[in-house]
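Revision sheet: structure tokens.
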Amino acid sequence: MTKTVFCKKYKEELPSLEIPPMPGELGIELQKTVSAKAWEEWKSHQVTLINEKMLDMSDQKNRKWLIEQMHLFFNNADYAKAEGFKSLD
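Predicted:
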């Protein structure tokens, strides 16, 4: 039976992540509050942000900014979106 979690992004019970998506307390928190579906969506968006903003992930400021965007994304707040990208929705 698949484990579920009440996903804070989608506000419903959805399949959970099998393991924490990153090390430490943040990874454990994400596993408990974010669905696998929301995590996959974030990973795709994260790649778009890294590429478009040309973020150097060895720079601590860029990593911190990306984590802030991740929190905004999962909390359905106003997060950074790709400029010039038009959704098909």
